[in-house]
Design goal:
Helix content: 40-55%
Distance between the termini: 38 Å
Shape: globular
Number of strands: 16
Number of domains: 3
Radius of gyration: 23 Å
Length: 491
């Protein structure tokens, strides 16, 4: 049986193809196909690039068709939004995420020019906008529309899924964090934490086994209007925006810069006093009046100017660390279990994870490698496999998340030969020794081997390696290879 688990659309959209008969897994995010970081397009580019032959079932990682959380992920209008986005991609032809940040005037100019050389894309754009305007949304209508939308897109590639499942967002985070962890089969707590999904920004589960789990805590992502939600992840996102960085993408830069500063006492205390942990219900709650200023970007920018960039970043970073550490210490008192699984976009914050290890009693901590929304694809695939009565215990044999595509030696040579400005020598099986010698001499090397990692971490198969003992290595990689701020560290 072949199950396509998905984060079907939205940032970090992804697909995970689970073959329960052959016991294989293939997983990839849309960004790896389009080259648009954290791509929010639906997974059509993946289906187009990989031409899957059989898909028996499809699963998606949201199920709030009533839109109680106001995130709009499953509203019927969202299906037309995605058609509009796909039409715009054909018009804009972006190479990078920044190419999509167009003003209305710039976008309209491109649409007008495309009337003469890409009329079909312009027509698709306006037809989708017209249909969206006519929609009168109901939960039943949204379920029907989203099911048909997914089914029709699979049908375009001659794939005929028998059924489409929809699963709760945070459970899709938690399930793979436990299933792929070394604790699978033992007791563990699983904490999810992100911006929001299906009305919540965090949930806490206790697992006794893959099919034996219980929800023991949850934190609501209250809707603040204008597309804003009240959550720790969203507050961190607004600090990122106030730093004139790209929200939902550059939070790691805030985390990195925080290491060079000290939390501003007033700003930090304001955040902490606005946050309350309910010990009985294991939930994180906010005083709306006290937290409201942090949703005002102009106010945040004033605080940034007052405190300085480093201290501004340290304030939100320390707040995140202290809040989650306090929450988990309370959880441990009620559920003294040594194993902890972490998932959700906020779990990408390495310094937070370090604080959890150093300042709580959890001794064994596992962070799901595709911790953000791309990992939801694995979660929805696992949940549907379980519901269909299939064994997925074999997934625990995958110690590393090498779930992506791989290339033959001939593929690599063909790619190299396509460039006039690249010379190479094939040293065959001697490459590990040659790579080690090159690194020791201060050269920067790239590792390209085996299957691609699933998730944001480079784990040896698609990695840049260099000698950390040599002065200037970090600066050289940041400035000439990665082309990112000099203060960002490397693992």
């Amino acid at each position: 049986m072949r199950i396509a688990g998905t984060k079907y659309c939205g940032h970090d959209s992804a697909l995970c193809l689970l073959d329960t008969d052959k016991k294989t897994v293939f997983a990839i995010s849309t960004e790896r196909v389009t080259r648009i970081k954290h791509d929010y397009l639906d997974i059509t580019p993946i289906l187009d690039a990989y031409q899957l032959d059989i898909v028996d079932y499809v699963a998606h990682s949201y199920n709030d068709f009533e839109d109680k959380g106001h995130d709009g992920e499953l509203r019927e209008k969202m299906t037309y939004n995605k058609e509009i986005e796909k039409a715009l991609r054909l018009i804009i032809k972006p190479n990078y995420a920044k190419d999509l940040s167009l003003s209305r005037t710039e976008k309209n100019k491109l649409i007008f020019k495309s009337l003469f050389n890409n009329f079909s894309a312009v027509k698709s754009y306006y037809v989708a906008k017209y249909k969206r305007a006519l929609v009168k949304e109901t939960p039943e209508g949204s379920r029907r529309a989203f099911t048909n939308y997914i089914r029709l897109n699979f049908n375009k590639f001659n794939l005929k899924p028998k059924k489409i499942f929809f699963y709760e967002h945070h459970l899709c985070h938690a399930i793979p964090s436990y299933c792929l962890s070394p604790f699978n089969g033992d007791k563990a707590l699983a904490l999810t934490i992100d911006g929001q999904g299906d009305g919540f920004f965090s949930k806490l589960y206790v697992f006794n086994g893959l099919e034996d789990y219980k929800l023991i805590g949850q934190s609501t992502a209250d809707f603040m209007g204008n597309g804003r939600f009240l959550s720790i992840g969203r507050i961190y996102e607004d600090f990122t925006r106030a730093m004139d960085l790209r929200p939902n993408s550059d939070e790691g830069k805030v985390e990195a810069l925080a290491a060079f500063g000290k939390a501003d006492k007033d700003l930090f205390q304001q955040l902490m006093s606005a946050t309350h942990i309910d010990k009985n219900n294991l939930s994180i709650n906010f005083d709306i009046k006290k937290i409201e200023p942090f949703y005002d970007i102009d106010w945040l920018k004033k605080q940034r100017r007052r405190t300085g960039d480093e201290n501004f970043c340290a304030s939100i970073q320390n707040y995140l660390e202290d809040t989650i550490v306090d929450y988990l210490n309370i959880a441990y008192e009620k559920y003294p279990i040594n194993n902890l699984c972490l998932s959700g976009g906020v779990a990408a914050n390495i310094i937070m994870s370090l604080n959890i290890y150093e300042r709580t009693k959890f001794r064994n901590i596992y962070v799901l490698p595709p911790m953000a929304d791309d990992g939801l694809a694995i979660g929805s695939a696992i949940l549907s496999a379980i519901d269909l009565g299939k064994d997925v215990s074999w997934l625990n044999d995958y110690i590393m998340p090498y779930f992506g595509d791989e290339y033959t030696r001939e593929d690599v040579i063909k790619a190299l030969d396509s460039f006039d400005n690249i010379t190479y020598e094939d040293i065959k099986n001697d490459w590990p020794q040659e790579a080690a010698i090159s690194v020791s001499k201060g050269k920067i090397c790239a590792l390209f081997q085996g299957k691609m990692e699933f998730g944001p971490r480079a784990l040896g198969n698609r990695s840049i390696i260099a000698n950390p003992m040599l002065e200037g290595t970090r600066q050289k990689i940041n400035s000439t290879v990665k082309r990112r701020p000099s203060y960002q560290p490397f693992c």
